[in-house]
Known about the structure:
Chain A is α+β, with helices and mostly antiparallel strands. In chain A, about 70% of the residues lie in helices and about 10% in strands. Chain A folds into 2 domains: about 1-50 and about 160-295, no CATH class; about 60-155, 2-Layer Sandwich (Alpha-Beta Plaits). In chain A, strands 2-3-1-4 form a 4-stranded antiparallel β-sheet. Chain A starts with a helix and ends with a helix. The mean pLDDT of chain A is about 85. By secondary structure, chain B is of the alpha/beta class. Chain B has a single domain (about 10-255), classed as 3-Layer(aba) Sandwich (Rossmann fold), CATH 3.40.50.300. Chain B contains 7 helices and 10 strands. Chain B has a 6-stranded mixed β-sheet with strand order 6-7-8-3-9-10, with helices on both faces. A 4-stranded antiparallel β-sheet of chain B has the order 2-1-4-5, covered by helices on one side. The two termini of chain B are about 30 Å apart. The interface between A and B is medium-sized, with 18 and 23 residues.
Amino acid sequence: xxxxxxxxxxxxxxxxxxxKAQTMIIFTVALSVLIFSFFYxxxxxxxxxxxxxxxxxxxxxxxxxxxxxxxxxxxxxxxLRFDQVMRIDFIDSRQAFERLERQLGQxxxxxxxxxxNFLPPSIEVYPVPSLNxxxxxxxxxDYLLTLPGVVKVQYGKDWIDRFxxxxxxxxxxxxxxxxxxxxxxxxxxxxxxxxxxxxxxQELKLLRLVGATNTYIRMPFLLExxxxxxxxxxxxxxxxxxxxxxxxxxxxxxxxxLAHLPFTFFPWPIILCIVLLSSLxxxxxxxxxxxxxxxx
Amino acid sequence: MIQETSPTSIIIDLIKVTKVYAPDVxxxxxxxxxxxxxxxxxxxxMSGAGKTTLLxxxxxxxxxxxxLVEVAGIDLAKLPQxxxxxxxxxxxxxxxxxxxxxxxxxxxxxxxxxxxAYRQPAFIEKRTRExxxxxxxxxxxxxxxxxxxxxxxxxxxxxxxxxxxPEIILADxxxxxxxxxxxAKVMELFHQLNQNGATIVIATHxxxxxxxxxxxxxxxxxxxxxxxxxxxxxxFSDTRPNEDSAPTEEAxxx
Lengths: 296, 254
């Protein structure tokens, strides 16, 4: 109990005496967390959006000719063999024509005189929502192309390509900003603690002379760094939340379609992880400095 | 680990201790000295006689070049680094150069010795006020030590050394900057702590503080132990050492 009281007192005293440096560190950590979590939030929402879009994904397998009952069974057996397929629907030429008519609506006149079986028959394959990875969709599409009588497989390849390229880019940006977060927090804290230690050499020497343990000397610095990480991350996440709501509000006016997209802020477990990560990095920075300077 | 000592046992034991500073300054030469628990010893001698070095060896701020230093039954040469704090908590040392933190208050400086031993904050405050009262510095509680006079700083250093009720108190020239009245107060504090069981070693060349004393007086000269007797040093004035080749204080403590 006394240990905790004295530890908190020491830490509070240290932080109070160096409040300018403390403010700078907390600001730097907050900025790093803001940059990292901003890109991570975009990535997080892009993934979320990808999942949503993946739910509506279907592959249309165009066939050379109308499959007979036995061939339909064969297709069904070979496609449903994959766990990732939820259901398949056979669309014959007449059904395809009716759909087209419905889609054209008032302009369906243009189909007058066109034979009702001019569209190729097809199979609509609905994959399970978890099949949202481009490479896996591609592989599955390639497999479908090998089936007998299949002419073409269509699944909106272009937008999926672009979308996953964007996700890939965001992944890299998030990773880079994560590295920035690690470097700034760790080095900034380590450097500042190092300077503090050097400026307090006399006091540290005296502490040893009056019988202070290594833990007694080191713990306030570790706690100080932990608090810096905690406060910095809390400020960064709060700033991001404000920014997120502001952007949502700004975009809702000119782009009402965006209001229907599932943009969400981080759930609590992710917020907790970011705060813990930041605190851990600061503590590691402090640990390495105290270890080096105090020669513990 | 540090052992408990009985009141009559030897608490500080130096056997043929030699300390040589680079390049070849002999601060102590084959000094043997045993101090019993609860004893008050005056360590006298001129500047550069080796008094400070001897105290630094006892508190393990220095290692002897040769010989054995034992405190509370522990050979300090064998005391692992991780256990030094246990030794230091049992020793309160008032340094000749005070070693005060000038940007901290008087109370903070005294509290340090108790805080490292994880004393309760209420105890720390009570003890600090009590010591300041005894040393006539009650009004300086919140004053920064950098703003104090040398004499006041010396009293703060003494208060810090005795604050945690150490078993051994080492005082290096504790009255060097004090007037007669304050010297008497400081000596009264030391006597009081000694009566309560503390072993005290006072290194001094101020003869006024040990002239009338009945305690043991140990005299060092040029790093050699010249006399050890009870009562006034005049009793062994025939053993008064010659004054050749004594290393300077600066050379010894640098």
